[in-house]
Amino acid sequence: MPKQQPFHLAAFDNFLGHSPIWYKQAMFAFLIFNPFILLTFGKFITGWIFVAEFIFTLAMALKCYPLQPGGLLAIEAILLGMTNTESVKHEVFQNFPVILLLIFMVAGIYFMKNLLLFIFTKILLVVKSKALLSFLFCLSSAVLSAFLDALTVTAVIISVATGFYAIYHKVASGKKYNHPHDHGGDAEIQELHRADLDGFRALLRSLLMHAAIGTALGGVCTTVGEPQNLLIAGKAGWDFVEFFNRMAPVTMVTLVCGLSTCLLLEKLKWFDYGAELPLAVRDILEEFEAYQAERRSTQDIMKLWIQGICALMLVFALAFHVAEVGFIGLLIIVVQTAFNGITEEHQIGKAFEEALPFTSLLVVFFVIVAVIHDQHLFSPVISGVLAMDKSLQPGMFFIANGVLSAMSDNVFVATVYINEVKAALDSGAIDQEHFNRLAISINTGTNLPSIATPNGQAAFLFLLTSTIAPLVKLSYGKMVWMALPYTVVLSISGYFALVNYI
């Protein structure tokens, strides 16, 4: 007989599933008290309350995926008149290239996972120094992000880390390489392997964070690195080369400081960095590589060649921006599946499982962004900075953009600020030279200090809500803690370079 209980208790159990009771109670409290806060304090204060509550759902991503609680807050915000569906549609359409990127590019990377695992396994086994390995992950992510985009690079790194984790987790559970296995739980992990698994998780956490920071270091440098860069370049009338040259006095300084911080953290083993690859894990990865090499048929080798050709097509197409990033991702999907014999619908469907939940979450996030826009939550900060002496404005724009980006979204903050500054230029309030300095401070401010929190950049939020994050115990708080030294170094060095060299 099934367990019988009162309907109200059954409804509470069903609400947000297996989330902790205190979390369910907190969400109930938010939803119940928000209307009273609106009636008591007005829309401006309530808008900031909604922002704080949504950030709370992101911080508790390992307790409950933020889509459901964040979605309920978004629905309530619309019902209370904090924003409307037209404003949400405007935000979604404005960021539609990012949505296309997530839907198609992440799926395209999924079909490259064998090639990526092959290449990065070689790197992991050949490079014995953890500091050098971390440096290579950070540097390669920075270079790739400068010519591709941060989300695509993050998708690659997530795919690689998940592949490594799945290999060791299967063996640690007492299974052979060719056995089916679910690496989502530790129930089957043998006691002998638990300590090594924890050490491997720590290693993957540090590599993921170094790579994520690398996407910010490289993404700030060029027009294609981050979505807002292209917008800023368009408003300023800069092409790829001019954008790079104007940003270089700041971005090259922060690149050197960021890479130096990477090496220093690994040497000092601070902020959860410095974990080495356990010997038992190295042995298993070496055995797996030998196992794969022995059983690799001519057909398998051809599949790797196709994936390699598609990788070159991807780099070329993104570097020269031949089309929207999402369309390039769709091209990669079609070519890889056609030439590698993947023709069944369910085989293709698996590739979209990683990206679509995050895509849905991002649309919910745009509802909160619409609240920020409609209630003019950032207006006091913008007005205050524009009222300052012109000599102080670049530095203050850098600080204000960094703080607001860390709380909301760097693309939105950059859009608001660059439009305000362009309006000031068009009205004659500022000259072209001052506009150029402010454009540089907006770009660097929204890209560098925003790494302080996962919600500051889409790539960081994607990492937080990916399938690899709970597997390696990478929570919101852990990401903030591990990003802290980078945040301090990049913020200080970026500010210093901006006020002295621009």
What is this structure's SSE topology?
Blueprint: H1 7-14, H2 21-41, H3 43-59, H4 67-79, H5 85-94, H6 96-110, H7 113-126, H8 130-147, H9 150-172, H10 194-219, H11 227-236, H12 240-268, H13 279-295, H14 298-319, H15 325-339, H16 345-349, H17 355-374, H18 379-386, H19 393-407, H20 410-427, H21 432-447, H22 458-464, H23 468-471, H24 476-501
Task: Kindly describe this structure.
With 502 residues, this protein is mainly alpha-helical. Among the domains are: 16-82, no CATH class; 96-226 and 248-354, no CATH class. The chain is built from 24 helices and no strands. The chain has helices at 7-14, 21-41, 43-59, 67-79, 85-94, 96-110, 113-126, 130-147, 150-172, 194-219, 227-236, 240-268, 279-295, 298-319, 325-339, 345-349, 355-374, 379-386, 393-407, 410-427, 432-447, 458-464, 468-471, 476-501. Helix 8 (130-147) runs antiparallel to helix 9 (150-172) and helix 8 packs antiparallel against helix 12. The longest helix is centred in the middle third of the chain and has 29 residues, at 240-268. It is globular. The N and C termini lie far apart (74 Å).
Summarize the biggest pleated sheet: none
SS-based class: mainly alpha
Could you tell me the strand content as a percent range? under 5%
Ends: how far apart?
74 Å
- Percentage of residues in helical conformation: over 70%
> What is the approximate shape?
globular
List unreliable stretches of 5+ residues: none
Overall average residue pLDDT: 83
Helical stretch tally: 24
How many beta-strand elements?
A: 0
Can you write the helix and strand succession as a string?
A: HHHHHHHHHHHHHHHHHHHHHHHH
Radius of gyration: 23 Å
